[in-house]
Amino acid sequence: MRLEYFEMIDKVVRLDRAAGTIEALAQVPEASPVFEGHFPGHPLVPGVLLTETMAQASGYLVLAHLGFAQMPFLMAVDKARFRSFVGPGASLEISASLEHDGSGYAVTKAAIRHAGKPLCDAELRFRTMPFPAGLDAPMRERARKIGLLDLDGAAA
Q1: Which residue numbers are catalytic?
Q2: How far apart are CA 104 and CA 81, in angstroms?
Q3: Where does the sequence pass through the membrane (predicted)?
C-alpha cells in the first residue's frame, strides 16, 4: 500500500469472475506522510483512504468482469460503515462482490477486515465508460503488478 500514490491494493489473491468476487490484500505502511497530519502523535488511516481501498478492489473486479473493455469510475458510495480504527502496520483483507452490471453502471459491495475482524464496508457505484486516451496501458500494468492478470487468465 502506497498511500501517497493512491496505490491501495498490494495483491489480488483470488478472483472468481463467474461468481463476481475478488479478494485482495494491503499492508498499511509503518510510516507515511499521510500520518503526519492524521493525526499527529496518533496515526490513523483516513476513512476516505479506506473507502478508496474498497473502490480500487471493486474497480479491479469490474475491470476483470468486463475484460478490460471499459474503465469503471467511482460515482457513489452508499451505506458506508466504519467499525474500527486502522493504524500503521495493519494487514488488510479486502473483498468485493459484483451486485449489478448493465446500462453503463456497475454496483459492488465491498468490505475490509483485519485479522478476520470487520473494519468497514460500503456499497459502491461505478460508471463504466471507454478508457480515456492513454489510461488503458497503465491500468493493465498496475493490474499485472498486483497479480490480477495472473488469476484465471483474466483480461490478459
Answers
A1: 38
A2: 26
A3: none
